[in-house]
Structures are given as structure tokens and as C-alpha cells.
Amino acid sequence: MSHSKQAPRWRAISFASVLLTLSPFCSAGTQQPAPVVASDTVVGRALEAPVNTRPLADKFWWSSEWFEQGLLPTPTNHQVVETEVVYVNPADGTEIPAILYRPAGSGSYPGVLFQHGRRGLDDLVQRLPRRMAARGFVVLAPDVYSARFFDKFPLEHQQETEGDTNAGVDFLLKRPEVSTSKICLYSHTRGGYYALQVAVKYERQQNDVACYVSFYPHWQDPNAVEPMQVYRYAVELDRLTIPSLVVIGEYEQYQRRRSIETAVKSMKEAGADVRLITYPGVGRGFDFRPEGVRTFADDLATKDATVRAASFMQQQLKPWLKQQ
Predict the structure, then answer these.
(1) What average pLDDT does this structure show over 213-242?
(2) Distance (Å, rounded) from C-alpha 302 to C-alpha 279?
């Protein structure tokens, strides 16, 4: 009889325990309904506004004149004229077609060699050297793919094209409209690898090239195996001694961004004069993406990067102005 009286009590206690255990889940839906939110996929705020707590002296972009007084620097602007030219690579006699961009009118200006990447020197890419010439430079843009009848977007890298770019340095330095005894190398994508070879492999950084500027460069031998593309950078970068400026977007392709950031970190640790600017909200090709897909962030980044690159090259070339 005692056992029959205890059984209901045990079952009652167990049932009460289950109710207590489940009560938070039950009450969550009945006593405290979920708040209404705008997004149907995002809960909460994933990111807060970015902050940069570096010392003010380390913020190279800072301008007290702008921040305190509202004064903006006036950009240099020139109408640009374009001339088709041809020069010869003396190594094998190959003729290299190129476009020479310069400010309209008379006068001489600092020299810049622009090297295209895998797209070749098509209409979209031609905007890049034209914009730089509008800042007050004589810009030579060789078309090394057309010179050797290569289709654009090649997979393999042909080393002879490096010599075609290198020969452009001599052609540019001999131009009467060039006001400097050295030039700067300016490039994008795979052109950054060509320009690197010109500076280091061909040793032009010793006497003929004052600085290196590249937008999202391919900083590895394009013919290297896949692990080298992702986890290493071109060995020539350890011997790049001239002041260098590199520009990428925060959405740059992972394998490219990794090699660039790894290389820049190593160069800085070795005491090299190198700066890497990462623009928020943009990815690869932000400076030439066409109108149909172009974003507001693309335009902001392109304008700022072009002006900063021009200012950097003017500064590096100023000591090499020829005596008039």
C-alpha cells in the first residue's frame, strides 16, 4: 500500500522538474515577444564604425588645414594630348608600339612609364596613363602584348616582354619634353611585376628610376606554382630599394592581398621606404571598372589614389629636375 501511494508523488515531482526546465523556452515566446527589426537576415549590428588610434604623426593623410580651416589642396589639371610612338628593344630588335601622353601646350614635365597588366592597353586601361598625364607628367604607355602579337589576358608570362618595358625607360629619358633625369614606374595588376623586374632585375633603380608606384600589383612570378602564388612573394621585392607606393582595395583577391601585405611587412621590417594604402569598400580594378558596374566608392578611391600617386611621384622626381 505504501508503494502505491509513493508512485504518484514521484511522477508529480518529475513532471514539475520538466516544467521548470522548459519554462525559459516557453516563456520566451509567450511573455517576451522578439522585437521588430528591419532586416530579415541580420541580427544586431555586425560592425561598429572603424576607429584608428594611431598617433596623429603616423596618419600620413591628415591635414590640419582641411580639418581645422576647411582648406582643400587644388589638384593640378591639364588637357592631355596623345601621340602614337614606336621604340625598339635592342635585345632582339622588336618594335614596341606605345602611346605618349603629355599636357597640352609647350613646356617639359617629369617622366613616368606606365605598364599595363593582363588586360593589355585597351580603352579602359588607357584612362590610367591619361589621368596621370593630366596631373602634369609625360607618360609613356608601351603595349608589350601587341608588340609580340600576344592575345590579351595571357596565362603564362613571357620574359622577353620585361625587356620591352625596360627599353621604354631609355626611350622616355631621351624625350625632349621630359624634364627629369630619372623617371618613375607606374603600373597595375601584372604590370607591377614587369615594373619590378625593370627596377631590380635590369638594375634601373640605381641610376634611372626614382620611384615605384603600383595599383594592386601581381607581386609574384606569374609562372610560379600555386603555393608560391598564395604564400610567397617575388624575391626581387627584397632588393627593391627605391621609394615605393602600393594601392589596393579592402576586397582585393585573397591570394593577391596576402602576398602584397606579406611583402610590404617584410620590406618595412628591413627598413625599406614603402607605403601600402588600402581603400575601404572597393576591390580589384576599382580604377578602371566601367560605368555600368562602377560604384561611388570606386570613384572616391580612384580620385584619391590618383592624386596621392601623382603627389608621391612629383616629390620623388623633384630632385632630378634637369638644369634649364
Answers:
(1) 95
(2) 9
Rounded distance, CA 295 to CA 128, Å? 17
pLDDT surpasses 90 at 112: yes
- Cell digits of residue 242: 627605391
Per-residue model confidence (pLDDT) at position 51: 87
Sequence ranges of the domains in the chain: 77-318
Distance (Å, rounded) from C-alpha 106 to C-alpha 221?
A: 41
49 pLDDT band, cuts 50/70/90, is: confident
Helix 191-199 / helix 160-173 crossing angle, nearest 10 deg: 70
- As a whole number of angstroms, the distance between CA 105 and CA 133 comes to 13
Contact 263, 237 (CB under 8 A): yes
- Cell numbers placing 322: 634637369
Judge whether 133 and 102 are in contact, CB under 8 Å: yes
Nearest to 176 by CA among 138, 143, 213, 207: 138
SS3 65: helix
pLDDT tens, 62-96?
Answer: 999 999 999 999 989 999 999 999 999 999 999 99
What digits encode the pLDDT tens for the residues 170-216? 999 999 999 999 999 999 999 999 999 999 999 999 999 999 999 99
d(CA 273, CA 260): 15
- The secondary element (H helix, E strand) that includes residue 161 is helix 160-173
Q: How far apart are the first and last CA of the chain?
A: 121
On the question of pLDDT at 54 being above 50, the answer is yes
Q: Would you identify the CATH topology of the domain 77-318?
A: Rossmann fold (3.40.50)
Strands of 178-188's sheet in order across: 80-89, 94-103, 138-142, 109-115, 178-188, 209-215, 244-251, 274-283
In whole angstroms, how far apart are CA 125 and each of 65, 112, 116?
34, 16, 7
